[in-house]
Amino acid sequence: CDGVESCTMVKNTDSNIGKIIGVMSGKGGVGKSTVSALLAKELSSQGYRVGVLDADITGPSIPRLLGISGERVYTRDEKLIPGETAEGIKVMSLNLMVKEESDPVIWRGPMIGEMVKQFYTDVHWGELDYLVMDMPPGTGDVALTTMQSIPLSGVVMVSIPQDLVSMIVAKAVNMARKMNVEVLGLVQNMSYILCPDCSTEIRMFESEEADEFLESMDLKLLGELPMTRDLNRISDGKLSEKIGETVTGLTKSVLSQLEK
Ligand code: ADP
């Protein structure tokens, strides 16, 4: 390894993992897991071999979003065998290891950080084109460990309009850049609602300020998702045509940013 940063990276020696895409947010509850699940499903529907590492250890919602639950992870030859969705997306999440989905994880930061690393190193991911990583929310201890230890190809930032012009997103972007992790762009979630009668986009916040913010941070807008009940039903695969198109577009932008 060359330099302190690459020396601290952990390795998975028995899997062949292509690119690792982190999905990050300045704080919890803005739709990071939702975007991770949408991205994984879209990549899988395009024929890529996809895995999702749920590094949001204390709030693991990936299994539910991808429609798998229960204890699905087992050990073989000292490696963890991940769960798998009907479409073949491999999933590693603490919620696939606990008896009750509602059992809390009452651990301190360093232990959670170790678990995230193990979810990368000790899981038999096999052959993957993309590993989507639902990162721990915010800019705290676990997010830092993750960025220092897992060889991320880039991160997708997720925010909501209220936060976009505040310092929360800027902090997360700056943290990634300080850690030499490429920020591929930003997905603005809950950007607007669609009028049920006329399909007009109703925006609660001015977008001018957001545009200025994106420019000042040199951030590419990868896509905007509406606030809709549809996004609570990702696992059914029943997304409207408009959301489907948005997800296809933002995935295309993510892939082209990764190629740069
Ligand atoms: P995070 O991973 O950032 O904590 P989640 O993806 O778990 O956020 O989303 C938090 C909650 O908001 C979930 O209940 C999710 O279903 C809901 N949600 C996320 N995005 C949207 C959206 N665009 N429209 C409606 N509900 C959403």
Automatic annotation (TrEMBL):
Gene from which this protein is expressed: minD_1
Listed Pfam families: ParA
Entry binding sites for ATP: G26, K27, G28, G29, V30, G31, K32, S33
Family membership: Belongs to the Mrp/NBP35 ATP-binding proteins family.
GO MF assignments: 4 iron, 4 sulfur cluster binding; ATP binding; ATP hydrolysis activity; ATP-dependent FeS chaperone activity; metal ion binding
Function: Binds and transfers iron-sulfur (Fe-S) clusters to target apoproteins. Can hydrolyze ATP.
InterPro entries hit by this protein: Mrp-like_CS, Mrp/NBP35_ATP-bd, NUBPL-like, P-loop_NTPase, YlxH/NBP35
UniProt keyword Iron, yes or no: yes
Subunit-level organization: Homodimer.
Recorded superkingdom: Bacteria
Keywords in alphabetical order: ATP-binding, Hydrolase, Iron, Iron-sulfur, Metal-binding, Nucleotide-binding
Protein known as: Iron-sulfur cluster carrier protein
GO annotation terms (biological process): iron-sulfur cluster assembly
